[in-house]
Write a structure and sequence with these properties.
Number of strands: 27
Structural class: mainly beta
CATH superfamily: TolB, C-terminal domain
CATH class: Mainly Beta
Strand order of the largest sheet: 1-4-5-27-26-25
Oligomer: single chain
Number of helices: 1
Strand content: 35-45%
Largest sheet: 6 strands, antiparallel
Number of domains: 1
Length: 385
């Protein structure tokens, strides 16, 4: 089976049994629980919280509460019973328009001692805007961010409201990966090593540049660059065994990709791609393969518009262990990818019944999967039946 031929349809949902349980209410919203039978597990979709405005990212706090970003520019604490806090104070100003606003949020690897959170956002400038990353001390009692400091900004700030990228992942060595879009109209910059557009960058937690970055000694290259030739990376996660960074990115019409993101590698956009132009359907670039371009592990034609990604390592769903889960916006589904080493050998599409744009996918401390439903402003949890 060719793991990259992925127009598989919705074969994964074998049967559906809907159980409407008006058993709980969050902020006046009656929760409907659905039990869905999939290829390897029966799951119940349990609403955890509602009333969010375009939720983008989710991070679990040590005490079981959740930190959630809303794209219009708000951070909230979500209690275990689904109650939403007031927006945290002192979030910096941002361009909350189009696809931009407050985006990813992650905890410091040493959060228990330093209380630091990191977040990405579209930072306005006199000329336009750029993807930026800031860190701050989280004051849970005061519902505020303290000592906010911007540690990274893209070195170009074009006008426009698209393709910010913006996933944040801490590597095992403590350095921070930041994914950066090419801002849509400047796609050729993805091949320019002097530009941050269309790149994955690697920085230290204080924003400085690691001395072993692949282009740190190359004249004319931005020293933060880790990999290049990306379009709009909105999913990133570390492989639980190898520690390698895996990413996925949006193509245009077709050409969404899952990649193993390696130091110094070129991922092709817009020269090598499976995507086509939106209006005309014409081919983009030179083709789908080139010797100096890293091929995708998996791709989708037509596009599913992937967002959010996690490797499942929990015990709640034993048959899903080692699988890669990807949220999808356009396809309104959760995609389960079975792996053999670095190969994708099977794909199943889940939860299409919900008609929800899945923005983020996270594994909780309880070993269950949590989803951000952008369409309905909810946090959903998958429970085993």
């Amino acid at each position: 089976m060719d793991a990259r031929i992925t127009n598989l349809g919705r074969r994964g949902v074998l049967a559906r049994a809907v159980v409407l349980c008006l058993s709980g209410t969050w902020n006046g919203w009656a929760a409907a629980q659905e039990t869905i039978r999939t290829e390897l597990a029966s799951v119940r979709v349990t609403p955890v919280a509602s009333g969010l405005d375009i939720p983008w990212s989710l991070a679990f706090l040590p005490d079981g509460r959740m930190l959630v970003s809303e794209r219009p520019g708000r951070l909230r604490i979500v209690a275990a019973d689904g109650a939403l806090s007031a927006p945290l104070r002192d979030v910096p100003p941002m361009q909350a328009a189009g696809q931009g606003g407050l985006l990813d949020v992650v905890l410091s690897p040493t959060f228990a001692s330093d209380r630091l959170v990191y977040f990405s956002f579209s930072q306005p400038t006199k000329r336009g805007a750029r993807t930026a990353v800031a860190r701050a001390t989280l004051d849970l009692d005061g519902l505020a961010l303290r000592d906010v400091r911007v540690i990274f900004t893209q070195n170009e700030d074009p006008p426009g409201q698209h393709h910010w990228g913006s996933r944040l992942v801490f590597a095992r060595d403590g350095n921070l990966f930041v994914t950066l879009g090419e801002r849509f109209f400047l796609r050729d910059r993805a091949q320019d090593l002097g530009s941050h557009l269309g790149k994955v960058v690697r920085i230290r937690p204080d924003g400085s540049v690691p001395t072993d970055n692949p282009f740190v000694k190359r004249s004319g290259a931005a020293p933060e660059v880790w990999s290049y030739g990306h379009r709009n990376v909105q999913g990133a996660a570390l492989h639980p065994q190898t520690g390698e960074l895996w990413t996925h990115e949006h193509g245009p019409q077709g050409g969404d990709e899952v990649n193993i993101d390696k130091a110094g590698r070129n991922y092709g956009w817009p020269v090598i791609t499976y995507g086509r132009e939106y209006v005309t359907g014409a081919r983009i670039g030179e083709g789908t393969e080139r010797a100096d371009v890293e091929p995708p592990v998996h791709y989708w034609v037509p596009s599913i518009a992937p967002s959010g990604m996690t490797f499942y390592t929990g015990n709640a769903f034993p048959k899903w262990k080692g699988n890669l889960f990807v949220g999808a916006l356009k396809a309104q589904t959760l995609v389960r990818l079975e792996l053999e080493g670095n190969r994708v050998v099977h794909e199943e599409r889940l939860l299409g019944e919900l008609n929800s744009r899945i923005r983020d996918v996270r594994q909780g401390p309880d070993g269950k999967l949590y989803l951000l439903d952008e369409t309905h402003g909810r946090i959903l949890r998958l429970d085993p039946v």
